[in-house]
Amino acid sequence: MNACPWIYFNGSPGVGKLTIAKQLRDLIPGSKVIHNHLVIELCLGAFERGSQEYEDLRKAVRNEVLSAISTSEKGRETTYIFTGSHGADTSVGPMIARQHSDHAKAQNIPFISVIMTCEEEEHLRRVTSADRKFKLNDIDSLKKTVSSGELFAFQCEYEINPLDVTNLSPLEGAKVIYDFIQECMTKEKLKSTHTTS
C-alpha cells in the first residue's frame, strides 16, 4: 500500500495557512494538522525565541515528531498537513522546511508543497483579525516579514506555487488543494503500478 501524502503549507504569517489546513483536514478523513505554532509554543516555554538553545530544541522536537510519524505504520496511513512560514533568503527557514521533505523522501512518502500568497490589503486585514490569538498580529512586523524576500519553495515534483488565496474562502482554498492532492496521488498510483509490473 502506498503511504498517504504529507502536505506542507508555506506562507507569510496571517495568510490563512492554519484556517485552510483545518478545512482541508475536514475534506480528508483521518488526516491530521501539525501546525508550526505547536513546536514554537512548546520551545518558547523553555528558551527565549532566537537563542541557540531555542533553535536546537525546535529542530530536535521536529525531528522526533517527523521520525515517529514517518516510520510508524499508523503514520503511513495518515495524511499529515504541516504549516510553516519560511523565507528563501534565510539559512534557518529552508533547513526547517527541508526537514519535512527529507523525512518524507527517506520513507517514500509523497510530499506536496503549497506556497500561499495573499494581496497586501487583504493580508493586513487578516493579520489584525481578533481570531489570531498568540500569533503575529502586528502590521509593522508583518510588513517587515513580507518585505524581507521571497518565500521558500521546495521546487519538488508536486507543488502549487503560488496559490493566491486573496479571493478564496478557506473552504475554496482547501478544495483547490484537495483536487491537486487527488491528481498527485493518481500519478503516484500509476508510478507504483509501473514499478510493480
Automatic annotation (TrEMBL):
SUPFAM superfamilies: P-loop containing nucleoside triphosphate hydrolases. This is Uncharacterized protein. InterPro entries: P-loop_NTPase.
